[in-house]
Amino acid sequence: MAKIAFILLCHKDPDAIIKQAQSLTAVGDYMSIHFDGRAPNAAYRKIRAALADNPNVTFAKKRIKCGWGEWSLVQATLHAVEAAVERFPRATHFYMLSGDCMAIKSAEYAHEFLDRRDCDYIESFDYFQSEWIKTGWKEERLIYRHWFNERSQKRRFYTMFETQRRLGLTRKIPEDLEVMIGSQWWCLRRRTIEWILDFTRKRRDVMKFFRTTWIPDETFFQTLVRHLVPAHEIDSRTLTFLMFSDYGMPVTFYNDHYDLLLSQDFLFARKISPDATELRRRLGVLYASEGVRFQISNEGRSLYKFLTEKGRIGRRFASRFWEKESSLGRERELLIVVCKKWHVAKRLLERVRLMTNIPCIEYLFNEEACPLPDLGGIQSTMGKRHRHRRALMRMLYDYYETDRLIVCIDPANLDLLEDFGRDRSVTRMIEIECLFSDEYLIGHAKRVGLAGERTPRETLERLLPTVRNDMIHESDQIRDAHFDNFLRIREADAPEVNARALAEFLTISDEKAMELAKTDYLYAD
Which has the higher per-residue pLDDT, 28 or 520? Predict the structure, then answer.
């Protein structure tokens, strides 16, 4: 069975570190601690004294002062790894942690997970080809030498960089290395760790190169593992759940995130707030628990993205520059059915097809599989449909040899409604206002990736108000846009009321409109 040696880099909160070490080693795992040389000696002595009688804890033989973006972080890791390899010969895996990390699965689950597959877990993406670095320097991290800390010695850092750049003092990457990049939170097998330590002793040229790269904790282990280990034995992922805000800052977890964290397909999570005392207590107990079954839904990142985006209001009113003078045509009519319940809109269109000769197209801007004729490839992908929306619509008019066309659009696509609603063609919209049961909202959350089949009911219930309010907000945005020729039918209204709106929308007789309004199961879930 797997036995884990945790490699803990920390610099504060000695009481939390002591609890973390006691919790993770209570079930037979190990820990090697490097406590930052910049931290107070009194705090370090407190940690050593509290853990002195714990045979499953050891300490790096040398404490060094660590700085963000520096080689010192890698060196501190190597010191802790060397101590763990020497002290714990039975350790099969070495797992990198920080003081802000905590287990979100039991030790029983973690050991079974690691036993299931003989591989190393480390993000390892091609440095130059991947998009792992979103903004800022890329090759500059490697081809120039960086001796100073960018945060504490900013002037020296950038002065040396500018001097090298002006003088052309670049350097080559070691020829036999393919530089990789990824998260510094990895889990490596003992054999891999031993190979890395042996490599560091033999390849002084590589060590010299990485000592003056910028942010080497994102490239050093990632590159060496890919250099030393067969590709099929590397799973390019981290087992530590972490998220970043739009500003590149780690998302912090609090007491009410317990169920969310447990449902993610990871073994640990960071960052756990120091103030989340109840969350820390529950997670500490969890690691030693037996027989716990975890329902993995893995919706954490998509849920975070959804909720943060709801905090912003943004619209695009201006047309794209290539769409100027690209009207659908003054003589044409575009009829838009706006409805969140797609199946309701589709039922209505099916009846319209039977009762009129107007071509009807369903959610062509929302569903990749929406049936469309071959229009020379412009319809082939969702990206092309959105980029060339007006050209696509003109081609559909020509294909069906008509001047009237009905399409369905989701109310979330305000930009589409803005584009078509301001066109010189005659555009009419009808919104179908439906009632949303809790079960429908849960199904919607699952369809859009905000939840999974195994998402805990408690998480779903907390999510429901946000999803419901989001749908109301979408409808309010459409109403606030004040489109001309905008109509609405409501599930709660009588067929006689809805028939009047349908008759105006489709310019059909009152009798036909009443027949449409009375369509069986039109609104049923």
Answer: 28
* Cβ neighbours of 497 (radius 10 Å): 12
Which regions of 184-322 does DSSP assign to beta strands (E)? 187-189, 234-235, 240-241, 268-269
Cα separation, 330 vs 267, in Å, equals 60
pTM for the complete prediction? 0.67
Distance (Å, rounded) from C-alpha 524 to C-alpha 341? 10
Q: What is the DSSP letter of 237?
A: S
Average pLDDT over residues 377-389: 88
Give the pLDDT of residue 58: 98
Q: What angle do CA 101, 116, 259 make, to 5 degrees?
A: 40
First CA to last CA across the chain, in angstroms? 49
Please report the pLDDT score of residue 425 as a whole number.
Answer: 85
Q: Give the integer Cα–Cα distance in Å for 203 and 157.
A: 27
Mean predicted confidence (pLDDT) in 53-63: 97
Tell me the three state secondary structure of residue 255: helix
Mean pLDDT of 86-92: 97
Q: Which of 52-61, 222-231, 479-488 comes out lowest in average pLDDT?
A: 479-488
Instruction: 461-469: list long-range contacts, CB under 8 Å, 24+ apart.
Output: 463/303, 464/438, 466/307, 466/310, 467/441, 468/436, 468/441
pLDDT (tens digit, 9 = 90+) per residue, 272-290?
A: 988 888 999 999 999 999 9
What CA–CA distance (Å, rounded) separates 502 from 496? Answer: 10
Burial 195-224 (b: 16+ CB within 10 A, else e): bbeeebeebeebbebbbebbbbbbbbbbbb
> Taking each helix axis from N to C terminus, what angle separates 438-447 and 457-480, rounded to the nearest 10 degrees?
90
Are 468 and 441 within 8 A, CB to CB?
A: yes
Dist CA 335 CA 420 (whole Å): 10
What is the enclosing helix (H) or strand (E) of 181? Answer: strand 180-181
Are 141 and 321 a contacting pair, CB within 8 Å?
Answer: no
Q: Which of 219, 142, 231 has the alpha carbon at shortest distance from 186?
A: 219
Mean pLDDT of the chain: 89
On the 0-12 / 13-18 / 19+ scale of CB atoms within 10 A, 81 is buried
